Amino acid sequence: MRWHEGGVRHDNSIITHPADAEAWKQFDATYPMFAQEPRNVRLGLCTYGFSPFGVSATPYSCWPVFVTPYNLPPSMCMRREYIFLSLMIPGPKSPGKSLDVYLRPLIDELKMLWEDGVNTFDAWRRQNFNMKATLLWTISDFPAYGMLSGWSTHGKLACPYCMEHSKSFVLEHETDS
Fold first, then answer.
1. Residue 160 DSSP SS3
2. Which InterPro entries does the annotation name (predicted)?
3. 19, 40, 106, 128 - which has most CB atoms within 10 Å?
């Protein structure tokens, strides 16, 4: 879990791990007390909705929510045993604006881990320490992004990055009478 602190980097110009990314470095600069303890955990949250019975079957939706620790080395980061299914939201349709209701228990735990931390045993050093965690990234498709962020991903201002500078346009059509 401390790999990112002194991990072997072959080429600093290539991002081979999230620790190489500007977001990680900016986070460390913004929260130096968190960064001071390399065993503090940096997490990613991933979600994506799908229909388990296919398009032609009865309409049904599943939204798994995964949490991934990014402190691990690149060879372990995305391995199945280190990706944790935190929540499964089933239903006849997507959770939509209610996604935050389903995520509330996870958000409360993440908030507690950020503010207070939890007493944890470090087997390598054979000592306890107060481990904290932060959610650095969310990874999702655009509709799920809209649900996670509360941003409307439809219409003229659909892109939260472009905002009013969007080059979007409306196709004009003629109606035949």
1. coil
2. Transposase_21
3. 40
Question: What pLDDT shows up at residue 61?
Answer: 84
Residues in the chain: 177
171: amino acid identity, one letter: L
| Confidence band of 96 (pLDDT split at 50, 70, 90) | confident
Q: What is the DSSP letter of 50?
A: B
Distance CA 18, CA 39 (A): 15
C-alpha–C-alpha distance, residues 90 and 98, integer Å:
12
Which residue bears the tokens 């081979």?
16
Region 53-70: mean pLDDT is: 83
Spatial distance between the Cα atoms of 140 and 149, rounded to a whole number of angstroms = 11
CA-CA-CA-CA torsion for 20, 70, 29, 34, nearest 10 degrees?
-150
Give exposure, 121-132, as e/b (b: 16+ Cβ within 10 Å): eeeeeeeeeebb
Q: Is the pLDDT of residue 168 over 70?
A: no
CB 62 within 8 A of CB 89: yes
According to DSSP, residue 99 is labeled H
Three-state SS for 112?
A: helix
